[in-house]
Amino acid sequence: MIAKTLVRVVSPGGQHGRLSILIFHRVLARQDPVLTWDLDALGFERTVSWLKEWFNVLPLDQAISRLNDNSLPPRAAAITFDDGYADNFTVAMPILRASSLTATFFIATGYLNGGRMWNDTIVEAVRHCKKAKLDLSKEDLGVYELGSVGAIRQAIHGILGDVKYRDRLERQKAADYVAEVTGAKLPSDLMLTTEQVREMRRAGMSIGAHTVSHPILARLDPAEAKAEVAESKQFLESLLQERVAIFAYPNGKPNVDYRAADAEMIRSLGFDAALTTAWGVADAASDLMQLPRFTPWDRTRLRFGARLVQNLLKNPALRSAQLAD
Questions:
Q1: Do 86 and 43 sit in the same domain of this protein?
Q2: Is 91 in the same domain as 122?
Q3: 321 pLDDT exceeds 90?
Q4: Cα 263 from Cα 271, distance rounded (Å)
Q5: What pLDDT does residue 325 have?
Q6: Same domain, 195 and 318
Q7: Which residues form the domain of 148?
Q8: Is the pLDDT of residue 324 over 80?
Q9: Are residues 177 and 272 in the same domain?
Q10: Is the dihedral of CA 153, 154, 158, 164 positive or negative?
């Protein structure tokens, strides 16, 4: 009850309403010793129960509409997922439905039906590598010992950090190189299928756009960035036979992963709102084309609740003026 009371105090409704938008990526069927940064089913079920107890969890489109007309209820929140992983359908959605909640799933359309994101190529290649030492020095990616689960995680984080902000073709080339050196068999079922996306929508979940190939928009020229966004929107609208109104920026850090011009491009394509990964909550003064999101990764009720309250106390809104031209 303490957490709920605190949330009510710092997240009022109406004209002073504040919207907490939570971001998730994967929900694993069971705990994985390597992928400790992802929730498993039990962890997500626990998190959902806390959110339902403390917040009024709304569908994202409804929450944004009510934010826009100053009619948010107190303790307003919405749940989102990025990228389009298959476990969103097989693991997360049944948990949400059991709690009578919905979420919005942002889909990188180029990876549907058997695709694999560059980062997952690296993750899966390294975690399934049978070598005691992984030598990637030929492409200046370092040499890693793989003698323990902790060492494997360290190798994954090190390689991802080295590759993340490379040109997207160079990024994919590096991921393919890691896969070749490890010789690991890579999965082809990590991402959703088009039929699963349709089924999610029929089940009451919402679908949003997340580009085609998950590039960092700030690294693309304006025409490429617009094509990535527009083509993902058009694909999903054709698939679902309805308008797709909300976008989530890949990576999503203002002035790092997207620019002021990108936010205006999103607006010009007819989206109602776009979501970042900047921490904070949205209020009436927020720029709808760069709404903040946040999820505490704490695994205990006390710490999780405390950090949600702390986030609500942050400067709530990302203003368009905060983006550099």
A1: yes
A2: no
A3: no
A4: 10
A5: 46
A6: yes
A7: 118-182
A8: no
A9: no
A10: positive
Q: Give the list of residues 6+ apart from residue 276 with CB closer than 8 angstroms, or none.
A: 249, 252, 253, 254, 258, 290, 291, 292, 293, 318
Q: How many CB atoms lie within 10 A of CB 149?
A: 13
Whether residue 98 sits in one domain with residue 142? no
CB 179 within 8 A of CB 100: no
The predicted-structure confidence for 161-188, as pLDDT tens digits, reads as follows 999 999 889 999 999 999 999 999 999 9
208 and 97 both lie in a single domain: yes
Mean pLDDT of the chain: 94
- CA pair distance 35, 216, nearest whole angstrom: 23
DSSP 3-state helix, strand, coil percentages of the chain (rounded to 5)? 45, 15, 40
Over its C-alpha atoms, the chain yields an Rg (Å, rounded) of: 20
For residue 78, list its beta bridge partners.
Answer: 21
313 and 223, same structural domain? yes
Percent pLDDT > 70 in the chain is 96
Same domain, residue pair 194 and 243: yes
Pairing of strands 143-145, 133-135: antiparallel
Give the integer Cα–Cα distance in Å for 304 and 251. 23
Residue 318, burial from CB neighbour count under 10 angstroms (0-12, 13-18, 19+)? buried
Q: Give the whole-angstrom CA distance, residue 235 versus residue 242.
A: 11
d(CA 297, CA 306): 12
Sign of CA dihedral 287, 58, 85, 29: positive
Per-residue pLDDT, averaged over 5-31, amounts to 91
The three-state secondary structure class of 53 is helix
The total number of structural domains that make up the chain = 2
What pTM did the predictor assign? 0.94
Check pLDDT > 50 for residue 257: yes
pLDDT tens readout for residues 41-65: 999 999 999 999 999 999 999 999 9
Model confidence at 116, pLDDT cuts 50, 70, 90, reads very high
